[in-house]
Amino acid sequence: MSEDSIYIARNSAIAARALAGEMMVMNSADSTFFTLNEVATTIFQAADGKTPLSEIVRDHICEEFDVDPQQAQADARQFVNELSAHGILLVSSQPLASETI
Amino acid sequence: MTSTSRKTACVEIGKIPIALSTTDQTFLDLLQRRYEGFLSSSRPEFELEFDLISEGLATDDDVRVSREGGEWNLKRGDFHACWNPSTGRGKVRQNPNPYSLDSVLRIMHSLILAERGGFLLHAASAICEGRAYLFSGVSGAGKTTMTRLAPSDVTLLTDEISYVRPNEDGYSAFGTPFSGELAKAGENCAAPIACLFFLAQGPENHVDELPSTEAVRRLMRNILFFAEDHGLVEKLFATACDFVSRIPIRRLTFYPDAKVWDEIRNFNGVPQHV
């Protein structure tokens, strides 16, 4: 999948809370916890199932964090893979319908 | 045809009165002795009918708590209970031993509290100068030791299971009859919580701050919750985050002698997690 055709959405079993400037997420299926850094939080919050990952990185990451676009895309892809492996994000080559989320 | 009348005792823990009824006088005597100090004449919010069975032993087998429709089912080797929060009524079939009874009540309170923004915590708690302090940690961390070292003017709420409910300004801790190694019920009273300490034993006493995310992790790890229910687990997570933002959470390393209570008495922390 190219970044242009990667769509990400938050898993409905995930609960998230901002606490003291950090985003804490919990997978309620197995009660595992993760703390997201600022960049990861931005991607997590923008994961609406409709916006391609490439657009999220371009409009949010590059804009807000002043990073090299190519590097940002690669880092975002790695981050999405990690969160997907933990069941926090759903990844698809098609936009994800709201009932899926 | 004969009919056997049910006899009832109302047990009020954390200001939640629950009527327990049975046809067995011996069992009634047992629960009245066990929950002496927590017996109440309040109008019960919930009612549990007990039917006693001889089979099934109190075990450490995993308890299974699930919701079917509007009804909770609680199952373990020594008991099977069903309870409907909407009607407030439930039935329990259990072995007549007090450990099964404690377990059923603890699970029921954990479900009620989760809905109401509170929780049961694996922690000792006590009131000192009008403020409640909670001491949590793994077995052997020092919960019972802290209660044993408490000066005479300190009121023990529990040495094992703390009962936490939200109040207007933060959270309060209530006494419970659920005891651990101390084998002594807590006092039936409550106070606003001043601090939750996570315990560790060391060569000297000191209090350290905990990052907020670590505080939430530790808190969630020590909350007693048995139900397979995503919605309630998420609600508990929200409660844990709120608790951490409103109540000071610290790591208390202590050398087990009475001086540790000077640290508690002098503690004047504020939540650092807002």
Keywords:
heterodimer, A: 101 residues, alpha+beta, 3-stranded antiparallel beta sheet, 3 helices, 6 strands, globular, B: 274 residues, Phosphoenolpyruvate Carboxykinase, domain 3, 7-stranded mixed beta sheet, 5-stranded mixed barrel, 6 helices, 15 strands, 35% strand
Structural summary, described in words:
The complex is a heterodimer of chains A (101) and B (274). Chain A is α+β, with helices and mostly antiparallel strands. Chain A has a domain at 3-11 and 38-89. Chain A has helices spanning 38-46, 53-65, 69-85, and strands spanning 7-10, 14-19, 22-27, 32-36, 48-52, 89-92. In chain A, helix 2 (53-65) packs across helix 3. Chain A is globular. The mean pLDDT of chain A is 86. Chain B folds into two domains: 7-115, no CATH class; 119-266, Phosphoenolpyruvate Carboxykinase, domain 3 (Alpha-Beta Complex). In chain B, strand 2, helix 1 (25-34) and strand 3 (46-52) form a beta-alpha-beta unit. The model of chain B has no long low-confidence stretch (mean pLDDT 91). At the A-B interface, strand 2 and strand 3 of A face helix 4 and helix 5 of B.
Question: Sheet with the most strands of chain B?
Answer: 7 strands, mixed
Q: Strand pairing plus helix content of chain B: what structural class?
A: alpha+beta
Shape of chain A: globular
Arrangement of strands in the largest sheet of chain A:
5-1-6
Uncertain residue segments of chain A: none
Task: Briefly note the structural class of the backbone of chain A.
Answer: alpha+beta
Q: How do the SSEs of chain A run, as a string of H and E?
A: EEEEHEHHE
Helicity level of chain B: 25-40%
Q: In summary, what is this structure?
A:
Chain A has 101 residues and is α+β, with helices and mostly antiparallel strands.
Task: Spell out the blueprint of helices and strands.
The complex is a heterodimer of chains A (101) and B (274).
Chain A: E1 7-10, E2 14-19, E3 22-27, E4 32-36, H1 38-46, E5 48-52, H2 53-65, H3 69-85, E6 89-92
Antiparallel strand pairs in A: 1-5, 1-6, 2-3, 3-4
Helix pairs in contact in A: 1-2, 2-3
Chain B: E1 7-13, E2 16-22, H1 25-34, E3 46-52, E4 64-68, E5 71-76, E6 79-84, E7 89-94, H2 98-115, E8 119-128, E9 131-136, H3 143-148, E10 155-158, E11 161-166, E12 171-174, E13 190-201, E14 206-209, H4 212-222, H5 230-246, E15 249-254, H6 260-266
Parallel strand pairs in B: 2-3, 3-7, 9-13, 13-15
Antiparallel strand pairs in B: 1-2, 4-5, 5-6, 6-7, 8-9, 8-10, 8-11, 11-12, 12-13, 14-15
